[in-house]
Structure formats: structure tokens, C-alpha cells
């Protein structure tokens, strides 16, 4: 199975949200990384066929997804950033309702609802009202509804926004677990969401695809650009004005800065191993990430 994005452009009035995107996706997890406004959600909505590109096309095994219509929609599961849940429905009732909307046969619905509730760890909470759920539990209901039709393509937009670290890890592991026989596209600006599960990372900036590589290759590209430097507190503003500064950690009565720079920022600066947070900072300025 192959999903091909060919010269996809999306324009809103005078603004290009996406600019001639070319991609090929096969089975596995793809993490789309970008600052707010980079075009992540627009691309996800086009892949989910809820938005048409201004130009270009998306092909599934050579067929245009717009021409495939319902045939394509039956193959996808979509979890938007803000999913509408009926707070007075129990988890079980909500999933059965969504199953009916998706056209699942009644004789299969009970078994499928049981299956997805077990998969997302909500079997014991199945008869509790969704309005009483935590944010993490609501996101799990969201992924459960996306999996009801056993999709071959799963599209999830900012799935861990607002979740605590424990729920984020649970969600990450779930996506990794279900990716063995599907294409999973995960949009996020939280780099730890994709660091360990993504087959490839796609970096979007101002509507353009600027990188598509494995996490390992992306990190190799900045392995000589990460430095640590211990300085006095009064020196911090100078380095922040001249360099991209990541973590600032207190070390006794001084401070250790993690600096992104093509050149050694100070003769006392020591090169360090990069991580995906460094990568994010390298490609996106602070004003973009705010």
C-alpha cells in the first residue's frame, strides 16, 4: 500500500498553507513536525479527504482519493485535533453511535466496540459518561472511534496536546503498536511524541516540506551543531541574543546552556549529542514556536 502526495498546494485567499508538497508514504509511522501555522493540519485534512487541495492530487496505489470517494473514506481513520464527543453518552454508546454512522454492520458492532475499548485501555470505563473522563481518556475515545473500521490509513492531528506525560507515553505506545500493518500519520509540535516511534520525520516550515528523513539521519545532520557551555547568570542574555539557546540548567551557582550553532560559540563550549528537541530548535525560530 502506498499513499502518494503529488505537488499538493493549498491556498487560502492570498496565503499558501501548502506549497507543492511531494511525498510517498508506506506502512509505518510518519511524524509531521512543524511550528504552529506550518501547514500540518491542512495536510492532515487533505489526507483525510475532508479538504480538497487547490492543486495537485493524493493517490492511493495510483488512484486519486477524490475519485475513490467512499471507497477511500472506508480505508481511513481520522482523529482531528478537536474531536466532538457527546458528554452525556457513555464510551460504549458513543462508539456504537459512530459505528452506525460509519456503516458498520450491526452484527459486527458489539465485537468491534469491545475490541477497540480493550485496545485503548477503556474496557472498565465503558459505561462511564464521556463528560466525566480526563483529557487523556477522551483522546483514547477519539482514537478508538478512528479505529472502528479497522483503517489501513490512520491520520491523527496533535493527539497528545494537553495530555500529561504518562498519558502521552501511553498514547505513543498505542500508535506504535497498531502501526505494523497500516500507514499512521501523526502531526505534532511535541518532538518526544515521535522520537522513538517514527519511521520517518517530515519537517514542514511555512507550508513547504523541507526535510523527510529517519530520525537518525536528521540527527546526524546536526551532530556538530550542539554545544553545552557553563556561564554566569549575567552572561545568559548575551548568548540568547546571539544564538539559539535550548535548555538552561542551573549547575551549582552557575548555569549550563545548550546552544545550537554551526560554529563553536565559546572556546569553553563542549560539543554534545543532538536530540530531536535540538533538531526542532535548529529549524524553527523561537517566535515560530510560540
TrEMBL record:
This is ABC transporter ATP-binding protein. Belongs to the ABC transporter superfamily. One of its GO terms (molecular function) is ATP binding. Keywords: ATP-binding, Nucleotide-binding, Transport. InterPro entries: AAA+_ATPase (IPR003593), ABC_transporter-like_ATP-bd (IPR003439), ABC_transporter-like_CS (IPR017871), P-loop_NTPase (IPR027417). Pfam families: ABC_tran. It comes from Fictibacillus barbaricus. SUPFAM superfamilies: P-loop containing nucleoside triphosphate hydrolases. Residues 3-231 form the ABC transporter domain.
Amino acid at each position: 500500500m502506498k499513499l502518494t502526495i503529488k505537488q499538493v498546494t493549498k491556498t487560502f485567499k492570498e496565503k499558501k498553507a501548502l506549497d507543492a508538497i511531494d511525498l510517498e508514504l508506506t506502512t509505518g509511522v510518519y511524524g509531521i513536525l512543524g511550528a504552529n501555522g506550518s501547514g500540518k493540519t491542512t495536510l492532515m485534512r487533505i489526507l483525510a479527504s475532508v479538504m480538497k487541495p487547490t492543486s495537485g492530487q493524493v493517490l492511493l496505489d495510483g488512484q486519486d482519493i477524490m475519485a475513490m470517494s467512499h471507497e477511500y473514506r472506508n480505508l481511513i481513520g481520522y482523529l482531528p485535533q478537536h474531536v466532538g464527543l457527546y458528554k452525556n453518552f457513555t464510551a460504549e454508546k458513543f462508539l456504537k453511535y459512530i459505528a452506525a454512522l460509519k456503516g458498520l454492520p450491526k452484527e459486527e458492532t458489539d465485537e468491534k466496540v469491545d475490541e477497540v475499548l480493550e485496545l485503548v485501555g477503556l474496557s472498565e470505563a465503558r459505561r462511564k459518561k464521556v463528560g466525566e473522563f480526563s483529557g487523556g481518556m477522551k483522546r483514547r475515545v477519539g482514537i478508538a472511534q478512528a479505529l472502528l473500521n479497522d483503517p489501513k490509513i490512520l491520520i491523527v492531528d496533535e493527539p497528545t496536546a494537553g495530555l500529561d506525560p504518562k498519558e502521552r507515553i501511553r498514547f505513543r505506545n498505542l500508535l506504535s503498536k497498531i502501526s505494523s500493518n497500516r500507514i499512521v500519520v501523526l502531526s505534532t509540535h511535541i518532538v518526544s511524541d515521535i522520537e522513538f516511534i517514527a519511521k520517518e520525520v517530515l519537517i514542514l516550515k511555512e507550508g513547504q516540506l523541507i526535510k523527510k528523513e529517519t530520525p537518525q539521519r536528521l540527527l546526524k545532520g546536526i551532530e556538530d551543531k550542539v554545544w553545552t557551555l557553563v556561564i554566569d547568570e549575567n552572561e545568559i542574555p548575551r548568548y540568547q541574543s546571539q544564538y539559539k539557546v535550548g535548555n538552561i540548567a542551573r549547575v551549582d551557582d552557575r548555569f549550563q546552556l545548550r546552544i545550537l550553532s554551526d560554529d563553536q560559540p565559546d572556546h569553553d563550549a563542549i560539543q554534545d549529542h543532538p536530540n530531536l528537541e535540538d533538531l526542532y530548535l535548529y529549524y524553527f525560530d523561537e517566535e515560530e514556536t510560540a
